[in-house]
Structures are given as structure tokens and as C-alpha cells.
Specification:
Blueprint: E1 10-13, E2 15-18, E3 21-28, H1 46-74, H2 79-93, H3 95-108, H4 112-128, H5 133-137, H6 139-153, E4 167-171, H7 176-180, E5 187-192, H8 200-207, E6 212-214, H9 219-222, E7 228-232, E8 237-240, H10 244-264, E9 281-286, H11 292-297, E10 302-307, H12 321-329, E11 340-343, H13 371-376, H14 378-391, E12 397-401, H15 407-426, E13 436-441, H16 444-448, H17 450-454, E14 459-462, H18 464-472, H19 490-505, E15 509-512, H20 523-528, E16 533-536, H21 541-549, H22 553-563, H23 569-583
Parallel strand pairs: 3-4, 4-5, 5-6, 9-10, 9-16, 10-11, 11-12, 12-13, 13-14, 14-15, 15-16
Antiparallel strand pairs: 1-8, 2-6, 3-7, 7-8
Helix pairs in contact: 1-2, 1-6, 2-6, 3-4, 4-6, 12-14, 14-15
Length: 593
């Protein structure tokens, strides 16, 4: 098999979760070697020295293996381990392995560690295509030998995204810890085997306005690090090793998309008011304080959801009160934002932090997470609450508790909150006088007891990502059941309507901060439900505002009333999509985004 056989163009279809087009180089992310350093040799004179480093590491690796072999021989070890060591020594001496790595250093101007990694990737792709199971399994020997060389190179650890040029991250899946360790501003896009529209990777991609396609099933088997790749996050298409003509077409598509975004930004600073004067507040969902300028630029009235769990991730030590305070003071009272809603940490599930004394759960999404975790780890909870209260004198602040399933949880959370507040006041610490307390409605039982919850809080915020998952009994990050994740399911719409009606009857505001709020397909339906606030990824705000300003409350309620008479998701979706295409043809082209 020649190398050219591996260079064919591959087109893959997945789930487009963050719009836009990006063209760049692939980086195959693997947690096992995620810390392999990568940096450019910008001065050609450095290349010879890097090749010498590689050859020295080869010699050191071979010396270590020979010593290990001798030790096993002295201990009377059997033939099998000695034979395996011989294979690894043969790999270290293999002329093709050595020449390819040196060529990578010279032609790509990269450090020796990364050149070895590229060589391993090439061998892995070749071995994956072998039909013989035994031969396919021998890639582990090459990986072992390569990792020994990398270890002996002994340079400081860097991540791929610390180098000068950006990469498109290719992975099986990405956890919060994975993305937290990346310098996200150097990431051009994401493509993963797993995941859906509400998975962590999707939320991060939309927040940072970078294209992403998930649920591709085998993208990691089809891509090699440094391959040319195109991601069309609007269409859910990934093109690996595109030919020049395809690249040219996508360059034009990228340009047109960016021009369209510039046009939409004209709506960013306009109020979200319908033609018949119904006003809805628009919030921005953020995970990192660095996203605040984007939220303001795209027209957020305030921060509708600040996911604080990312303060904990990728740290050797737990954040202390001052760490929390520094983050919250960067969110509260920011010029251009009328309010900020801080959600207490939703740790648990797939989000853990250093030193956490947790055990693996068979079903973490229904396990010890959100408010359940906070009420179990009360001292950690108090550290966060103290910092939130200390930041509250900066401006309008709302605090929101996640995963509330019953009245006992909100009562206990409030008790701890006021205990911490009174302690601070006794110490003479300034705190805000008008902090609003809210709960996220994302557990079906919270809808059922919403009347009681409304007596205890100032606002509801509907978290549709989890609410839909729990109502429809699907794992929202499992690509096998993605087709069942339907925001327009009649049961979902009925629950949302119940929450809004109960909240308004009790005289409290009702917001929506799930991904449903940022999809313009649903904007008229949400207007018809008379939600007070829609909070979303900042990139979605201008388009949603455009839809709001082009609609009327009257027609939105008429659409909602028709929808509520239908019994199937498919009927509802057909009606909603047809209505939106008719009313806003420029936004909802039949074959468009």
C-alpha cells in the first residue's frame, strides 16, 4: 500500500453544533499522549540540533531496553518478554521509522517529540487498515517504543494549542477537563466521534464562536495529525484532505458566512421587542470570563447563566475564596451588562475536580451532581457562596441553584446562603441588598412542585438541556439516540408552559437558559409562551433578536395554540419549520443553515 492510497479525500456527515466554516490542519487529540509537546522551529539553524536530540534519545531508549532485557535474563525471565523487548529494539533501529521522523523535523520544522508523534500516527493509520487482527495489534509496540523516545527527549510539557498556529481538534470525545487544558483561543474548530447539540463540546464551541461537528462516529480513524481538513458547522459536514477545487469553494463559503454574520450584528444592539411591543430580555450564557466581551458585542442585556464549575477544572488545588471572588468580580457590574446570573457549581456527572473524593457512578447524569453535591460538600459550597456575596456589592446579581428536584433542597440551600450572608454582615463585609435567588427547572419533579418552589424564589430559569433529557429518558450525548432529543416534543412544550404559567401566577420572572433558547427555529414558540428572558450563547443573540423584532406576540401565540393541539413531534416540527420558512425566508432557507 502506497502513501498516496492514504491521502484520498473523505467526506463525513455528523451533527453541526456550532455554525461557520473553518479550513485548517487537524490535530488528533488522544488523552494518553495529550501532553506531547509541540512547537515550531522558527529558526532553520535549530533543525540540526533537534535531529541530534532525536538521535540521542534513540540511543538512550535502546540502552534502557538492553539493560531491561539483561535484567530479565538474569532473573530467568521467559522468552515472551525478551522477544517483545527485541521487537521494540528493532523499531528503534528501523531505518524507515528514523528517516520518517527526521523528515518530519526538517519538512514541518517541528520539535523531535512532535515529529515522533507524527510518525506513530502514520503507522497507526497504516496498521488500522490491515485485515489481520494480529498485525493490526502490533501498533501497540510502535506506540510503546515511540513513547519511550518522547520520554527520553525530556522537554517540558506543552499542549498542541500553545504553538503559534491554530489547529482543528479531532477527538473521540472531549470532557470539560480536556478543553480546560487547551489554550482555546488557538483552537480553530472541533470534530468528534461522539456528542450532540447539547454536549459540553458543543456548548464550548458555540460560546467561543468556533465551528464544530460532532457525532461523526469514526473521524478519529479517518484523520491523521496535520491533515488538511474543512469543518462546515452549519451543514454538519467534515471534509478530510480536500482537493484544491473543494478548498476554493469552501473559502468562498467561509467568506459569505462571515459577511452574513456582520450583517446580523446590526441587530445586536437593538432591543428584543416585537412589532406589537412585547419585550423579552436577552441574556448570554458563558463558561469563562473571557467570553464577556463577546456577549456584550453580540447584544446581551446581561449574563443569564455563568457556569462556575469551570473554575474548578484543570487545577492541582481546589480554588479558594479569593479565586472565586476574582472571577465573580469580573462578571458582576460590568459596563454594558444590566445583570449577571451566577449558577452555583454543577459538579458531578462528568465534571470533577482535583482531590474530589468521588466514586464512579453507573449513571452520573442522575447521580451526585448539582445542588445534591453542594449540599453534601457544604464547606465547598460555603466557599463559593461567600465569594458570590462579596462580589454582589459590585452590581445587580442573581444567584441560581441547579438540579433542584424538590422543596427540601431549595430550603436547605437558602438556609446555608443566609447563614453565610449573616456571618459576612457580622464581620462588616459589604454585600448587595437586592440579590435575587432562583432555581433551574431541569428535573421533571421540579415542574410538578413548581407552585411550592415559586413561593421560595424570585425567578425560575428553565434548563432545557437536562429537562428534555430527563423527560424523554435519553442520554443527550449518546449519538445513537440523538434523533430522540426533540425540544418540540409535546411533553416538553407542555412542561415549559406549566412552568411559565405557574411562575407568572406567583408573580415571578421565568427565563430559559438551555440551548433551545438560542435556536431561532423556536423563537416564535418561546415568544408565544411569554417567557420573560431568553439566555443563550452570545453568537446566537443577533439572529434571535432579528426574529423577535420581525414577529408579533399575537401571531406567536396563534402558532403556539396550533402547536398545542398537535399530538406528535413530527407534526409540530413540520408546522413550526414551515411557519418560520414562510415568515423569515432569508433566515430559514429550505436547504440553508
Amino acid at each position: 500500500m502506497g502513501e498516496d492510497d492514504l491521502k484520498e479525500t473523505t467526506v463525513m456527515k455528523g451533527i453541526g453544533v456550532s455554525p461557520g466554516v473553518v479550513i485548517g490542519k487537524a490535530y488528533l487529540f488522544d488523552r494518553r499522549d495529550a501532553q506531547v509537546p509541540l512547537y515550531k522551529l522558527n529558526d532553520p539553524s535549530l533543525i540540526a540540533g533537534e535531529i541530534r536530540r532525536f538521535r540521542k534519545a534513540l540511543r538512550e531508549s535502546e540502552k534502557q531496553l538492553i539493560e531491561l532485557k539483561n535484567q530479565l535474563s538474569d532473573l530467568g525471565g521467559g522468552m515472551q518478554p525478551l522477544y517483545i523487548i527485541d521487537i521494540h529494539i528493532m523499531i528503534l533501529r528501523d531505518r524507515k521509522f528514523i528517516d520518517r521522523t527526521i523528515r518530519n523535523i526538517r519538512e514541518m520544522s517541528v520539535n523531535a517529540e512532535w515529529a515522533v508523534r507524527m510518525t506513530i500516527d502514520k503507522y497507526r493509520e497504516i496498521f488500522d487498515r490491515m485485515e489481520d487482527d494480529y498485525l493490526r495489534g502490533r501498533i501497540s509496540d510502535i506506540q510503546y517504543a515511540g513513547q519511550r523516545i518522547i520520554t527520553n527527549l525530556g522537554e517540558k510539557n506543552l499542549t498542541v494549542v500553545e504553538m503559534g498556529e491554530g489547529f482543528i481538534i479531532i477527538a473521540t470525545d472531549l470532557s470539560p477537563a480536556d478543553t480546560a487544558q487547551m489554550k482555546i483561543d488557538r483552537v480553530l474548530g472541533f470534530a468528534t466521534d461522539m456528542g450532540g447539540k447539547t454536549s459540553h463540546t458543543a456548548i464550548v464551541a458555540r460560546s467561543l464562536e468556533i465551528p464544530a461537528v460532532l457525532g461523526l462516529e469514526n473521524i478519529t480513524r479517518s484523520v491523521q495529525t496535520n491533515d488538511d481538513i474543512i469543518i462546515d458547522g452549519s451543514a454538519g459536514v467534515v471534509i478530510v484532505r480536500p482537493d484544491p477545487e473543494v478548498s476554493k469553494r469552501y473559502e468562498e463559503k467561509k467568506r459569505l458566512y462571515e459577511e452574513a454574520q456582520d450583517d446580523l450584528l446590526d441587530y445586536a444592539k437593538l432591543p428584543a421587542v416585537t412589532k406589537d411591543s412585547y419585550s423579552v430580555e436577552i441574556g448570554g450564557n458563558i463558561e469563562f470570563i473571557e467570553e464577556i466581551p463577546s456577549a456584550i458585542a453580540h447584544g446581551a442585556d446581561g449574563i443569564g447563566l455563568y457556569r462556575t464549575e469551570f473554575i474548578y477544572i484543570n487545577r492541582k488545588q481546589l480554588p479558594d475564596e479569593e479565586d472565586h471572588l476574582a472571577n465573580y468580580r469580573s462578571v458582576v457590574g460590568v459596563e454594558g451588562l444590566s445583570w449577571s446570573t451566577i449558577r452555583t457549581f454543577d459538579l458531578g456527572g462528568d465534571k470533577f475536580f482535583p482531590n474530589a473524593q468521588t466514586s464512579r457512578e453507573l449513571n452520573p447524569q442522575m447521580g451526585l451532581r448539582g445542588i445534591r453535591f453542594c449540599l453534601k460538600e457544604v464547606e465547598l459550597f460555603k466557599v463559593q457562596l461567600r465569594a458570590i456575596l462579596r462580589a454582589s456589592d459590585r452590581g445587580k446579581l442573581r444567584i441560581m441553584f441547579p438540579m433542584i428536584s424538590g422543596i427540601e433542597e431549595i430550603l436547605e440551600a437558602k438556609r446555608i446562603f443566609y447563614e453565610v450572608k449573616n456571618e459576612l454582615l457580622k464581620r462588616g463585609v459589604a454585600v448587595g441588598n437586592d440579590i435575587e435567588i432562583g432555581v433551574m427547572i431541569e428535573v421533571p419533579s421540579a415542574v410538578i412542585v413548581a407552585e411550592e418552589l415559586a413561593k421560595e424564589v424570585d425567578f425560575f430559569s428553565i434548563g432545557t438541556n437536562d429537562l428534555i433529557q430527563y423527560v424523554l429518558a435519553i442520554d443527550r450525548i449518546n449519538e445513537r439516540v440523538t434523533y430522540l432529543y426533540e425540544p418540540l416534543h409535546p411533553a416538553v412544550l407542555s412542561l415549559i408552559k406549566q412552568v411559565v404559567d405557574i411562575g407568572h401566577k406567583a408573580g415571578i420572572r421565568v427565563a430559559m437558559c438551555g440551548e433551545m433558547a438560542g435556536d431561532p427555529t423556536y423563537t416564535m414558540i418561546l415568544l408565544g409562551l411569554e417567557l420573560d428572558e431568553l439566555s443563550m450563547n452570545p453568537l446566537a443573540i443577533p439572529r434571535v433578536k432579528k426574529i423577535v423584532r420581525g414577529s408579533t406576540l399575537k401571531e406567536s401565540k396563534t402558532l403556539l395554540n396550533k402547536v398545542m393541539t398537535l399530538s406528535s413531534s413530527s407534526e409540530i416540527r413540520a408546522l413550526v419549520e414551515a411557519t418560520m420558512q414562510k415568515r423569515f425566508p432569508e433566515e430559514f432557507q429550505v436547504n440553508g443553515q
